[in-house]
Write the structure tokens for this entry.
Amino acid sequence: MAVKGEYRQHTLLINCVIVIAFFALISTLVWYLYESEPDMERTAMEVLKKQFATSVTNAHWQWRAEGEPNRIVLVHYDAEGKETNRRPIEMGHLGYPRVEPSSAGCGKLWRMVLDIPLTINRMKVYAEYYDGIAINDNVLDSYCRFKLLNGPQFDYKIYRGQIVK
């Protein structure tokens, strides 16, 4: 009878160890998956930041080559170099894509320049406008900020054509 009680205690102890090990393994897996996701978002935002800078630079030089018109047609290509779309872009007097001074204007700029909606991996990209006059009394310091909620971001100086951060 005493052997049977010891056997039950031993079995109970082994079951507890198995359950604890299982929860530790699941917790580690959840933590790993949770921690790796922001890196994917950061990488995606870095890629889009580079594409944004390239498209703005291409638009600027195309504007110069065409004699500084008010509007150009920016051609978008896929990874294999095939044309995917053409979009008209209104240009400012300094040769960079024109932006309406509002957050909606920054969102429109994102869609024009990148030819994609304001999302990364099904997460909303927030487009915010910051007025240079309100910041330091210099309109040339106005910028658009593109960011994920509590995640990576970059700023685009709209009158200088520069990417910051």
About this structure: The longest strand covers residues 83-90. The helical segments are 2-65, 103-114, 132-136. The CA atoms of residues 103 and 129 lie 5 Å apart. The radius of gyration is 26 Å.
